[in-house]
Structures are given as C-alpha cells and as structure tokens.
Design a protein that fits this description.
By secondary structure, the chain is mainly β. Helix content is 14%, strand content 44%.
Length: 147
C-alpha cells in the first residue's frame, strides 16, 4: 500500500516551490485550502505532507518533524520571508477571510512600482497563516506610463 495520493499539480511541478514546516497540518489546511482556496494535488499522509496548488501557485506543507530544521524554530515562522500570491481578484479571498474572522496583517492597498519607463500596479493585502508565515496576496492592475 502506498501513502502517495494524488497526481502532479496542473501544469507540472514548478521550478521553485517553498516547503513550509507547520505545527498542525490540519489547522494549516483549514487556512490554505478552506480560506485561501488551494487544492491538494499530492499528499503523503504518513508523513503529514501535502503539495498544494491554486492560481498557478504551488506550496508544500509538512507537519514539523525536526527534519530540515537548520536552526531553532520560533513563532512566527518564516521571519524575514514573505510569500507572494497573485490572483485575478483579491476580493473573494478577502470576503472568505472576513467571514471567518481571520485577521489581516495589513489591509488592502494599491501600489505602483517603476519598471523601466512604466509603472506596474498592484492591489494587495498581507495575512499570516496559522504559524505566522507572511503572505502578500495581490491582483495586478496593469501598467501605466511613469509620472
């Protein structure tokens, strides 16, 4: 009997995929799957591991077991790292988080960044998962000439 369940993510395996060590896989899935909308593409139940996908983004979650922990783990996890996820619209995720009473780290805001002789726009908000990993969830607003 195998513990491998599922199949490769839509479009195949990404070239770079973060694997997040989590305290409680069930609680993390309640956030990543139920609130953010990620699907489980692949799992290894005996290892308490899932490979998630959504909107072309991929992330792995593994319940902490001491393996690959290169130093002390203190909450919030991921200090110094921020993961960006881009959606067509952030409004459905904002509504789901609000309905669940999930706090935002920073509320939605619009930002424009210089890229060459243009600016690229982004509407974004920040939220932390159950272990404190910081996520920026944004929608692209297009480009405009630099001011």
């Amino acid at each position: 009997m195998t513990n491998n369940v599922g199949s490769p993510p839509d479009g195949g395996w990404a070239s770079l995929v973060p694997e997040l060590a989590v305290t409680d896989l069930t609680a993390s899935l309640a956030f990543w799957r139920d609130l953010l909308g990620f699907d489980i593409a692949y799992r290894r139940p005996a290892e308490k591991f899932v490979y998630l996908q959504c909107w072309g983004a991929q992330v792995m979650l593994c319940e902490r077991n001491g393996r690959y922990e290169t130093g002390p783990m203190h909450r919030p996890f991921g200090q110094g790292a921020m993961f960006q996820i881009y959606l067509d619209s952030i409004d459905p995720v904002l509504a789901t988080l609000d309905a669940a009473g999930w706090p935002l780290y920073e509320p939605p805001a619009e930002a424009w960044y210089g890229v060459g002789d243009e600016e690229t726009g982004l509407r974004k908000f920040f939220v932390q998962d159950p272990d404190g990993y910081l996520l920026m969830i944004g929608e692209r607003l297009g480009r405009r000439p630099s001011s």
